[in-house]
Amino acid sequence: MIDKSAPSTRDKPRTPGKARLREHVMGWLFVGPFGIVFLALLIAPLAYALYLSLFQKKLIGGTSFVLFDNYVKAFTDPSFLSGSWFVIRFSLVSIPLQIIIALAMALILDAVTSLFARFSRLMIFLPYAIPTVIGAVMWGFLYSKSFGPLSDLFGLFGATPPDFLGGNLIFYGLVNIVTWQWAGYYMIILYAALQGIDPALYEAARMDGAGKWQIALRIKIPLIAPALLLILVFSLIGTLQFFNEPQILRSLAAGTISPDFTPNMYAYQQAFALANFNYGSAISFALGGIVFVGVYAFLFFTRKRRSFL
Amino acid sequence: MRMKMNRFSAAVAVLAAATALTACSSGGGGGGPTTASGGGASNCTNTIPKKDLPVVTMWGWYPNMQLVVDNFNKQNAEVQVCWTNVGQGSDEYDKFQTSISAGTGAPDVIMIEMDRIPTFQIQNALVDIKKYGYDAAKANYSEGAWKDVSVGDAVYGVPVDGGPMAMIYRKDIFDKYDIKPPKTWAEYEEAAKKVKDAGGPAFGDFAANVSALTMALQIQKGAAPFTYDPAQQSSIGVKLNDQASKDVLDYWGRLAKDGLVGTQDQFTPEYISGVINGKYATYISAAWAPGYLTGAGVGKGEDTGKFAVAPLPQWDAANPVQVNWGGSAFSVTSQSKNPELAAKAAFGLYADKESLTHGWTNQIIFPLNLQALNDPEFVNLKVDFFDGQQANKEVYVPAANAYKGVTYSPFGQYYFDAMTKQVSALIEGSVTGAQAADRVQEDVAKYAKEQGFTVQ
């Protein structure tokens, strides 16, 4: 990433040493601003967190170097494991749902060109523009058993509304919030990718006798496969690190959403409420490991299929 | 934590996003003013009238804190207080905890609930104020009040308000179903059944998110959760599954299972709206509850004058036990550069008559300062929220006087979280009360061992 000037020198006549040196310096200058920010704000904190995760601090006995003990503990800690299992299950349900909705919307909006389509596009995207915190609080109230619209609706039939903040339905309550918030954003990415397709292809397809469905399935979707892959990776990373929505809803449903509900919340709880920065860092890295493995595996398996996706 | 990303290479992005949270943490530093005494405090919520005096910083969340600080600054000629509200309860503790870990960023004086004092004391985050004016102030507070802010012989806070517990109830519901305030928990259950059979509302609420309340109710039946001698700091007694603790969880678990009480988390809009709409016949709570409820809009409009208060039901009416929920103190932090000045503020704040009177007339605090506690006006006050009932005289003052104090643990947050988890399971019906108590015991004892304690 840093020294890319080398290959070009072969074709050119040998440049004198001074000029090469200047080229070097210029290169560093260009990379410098990014490099400094990158090192100071990303690499250094990561290194520090990694360093912290190798220690253990006890209320009695102080800090000691324990190497990977915190990681061993994390991967045998029921709180961390159940939290990880939750986000994996959550990914399996919420990601396909979000992407199917986003894809359907994008294909519809791409096929229809009217003022209404532009308005719809904006409306579908709007939830993404609402900060997650406000979105979560809003849904918290919509789910309310006593003053939410659900209670009115079910009250009409004399039924009790489902409690989306209760232990059984919180999963779906959160799936709904996340889908509401993110489907519009993914829709915009897919829509932009669809707009980039050369219309001549459609014309050619139509001349070959392809209908609208066939164009969508055989031309459009394969051509936006890279964009689909991109949002899959985005949503996978985002969902495995699930934090904001459950953390906000905790203030409404502390009994249902425990502090170890997701691994990220557990790391936060350990570091900031229980002062175990060391274990909190270890959990963060362990989660980072899970995310890395998950995304790498995903990219690996889709690499071959991408050509006919 | 869902992130928006553009052109990072996949691997870097993954790793970066995965640990962004930790990255934030290592930046350290809680919000709020970081200047120690000696002036220069910038982020004050209040304006400091005497600019030439040294300044100490303070965090606190009493609703009338602004007035209290102004009163102090006006009357004091040695030191001025720069106050900020960084959040209530856990929000503030998380910030304080971060400052402790970072070694910087804490205020000079901090408002802490008494049950949290050992948690911070064991990290050497608080200053023993015995040599900074304790003797002069000693007579202003009861023995029990001092016990709750002490660890061993050392004193780590100035008591401000207490939370003697009682049973708040709705007179309209009690009248409608012809019920007298229950004197024992057995009567409480009977009354709950009677109301339910007549098609009435839930009799009370058993919530997972109020572990401090559940703990107090267990203590009332004779539980002694922690035994802890600060002289032997590394050894702690953890007894969270004795028969009393199990019985209390079984009792409330049964009431919840039979649908006699609600299971709504408290301090939520959902719960408050239930209280307003008469969904709960009683509210087992502390002396600060009327102020909190009034602030949340309860007891106004249609609900005016519908509430009354009775002493907390007992397990054994012949040997009543009074317990406490909440109550706060002002502590001096060990990050203070001038603990002597900070202690002056801790002792002086909310100790003047004007502030105290404002506090109790508005039901913001149940004062522990004897100057207020013995004030006939306070004792005889006819409380509007309770429709003119002399609540202090009849219920709260006797409860406060009979309160003996409790030994709290140095890992209160963990204990409360463990309790929340198990009470939540108990409400769902996946464990019995006895099992829940056993699991809390197992969980907390394991944590205590991990933290280096010898558990007895």
Summarize the structure in words.
- The complex is a heterodimer of chains A (309) and B (456).
- By secondary structure, chain A is an all-alpha fold.
- Chain A is 71% helix and 3% strand.
- A two-stranded antiparallel ribbon of chain A has the order 1-2.
- The longest helix of chain A has 36 residues, at 17-52.
- Chain B is of the alpha/beta class.
- Chain B folds into two domains: 33-162 and 326-379, Periplasmic binding protein-like II (D-Maltodextrin-Binding Protein, domain 2, 3-Layer(aba) Sandwich); 165-325 and 397-455, Periplasmic binding protein-like II (D-Maltodextrin-Binding Protein, domain 2), CATH 3.40.190.10.
- Chain B is built from 19 helices and 14 strands.
- Chain B has helices at residues 10-27, 65-75, 90-102, 117-121, 130-137, 143-148, 171-176, 185-197, 211-220, 243-257, 269-276, 289-295, 339-348, 353-361, 370-373, 376-379, 391-402, 412-428, 433-450; strands at residues 55-59, 80-84, 109-113, 150-151, 154-155, 158-170, 204-205, 226-228, 235-238, 261-262, 282-286, 307-311, 324-332, 454-455.
- In chain B, strand 4 and strand 5 (154-155) form a beta hairpin.
- Residues 1-40 of chain B have low confidence and may be disordered.
- The interface between A and B is large, with 58 and 58 residues.
- Chain B: Pfam families: SBP_bac_1.
- Chain B: This is Carbohydrate ABC transporter substrate-binding protein (CUT1 family).
- Chain B: It comes from Nonomuraea fuscirosea.
- Chain B: Residues 1-25 form the signal peptide.
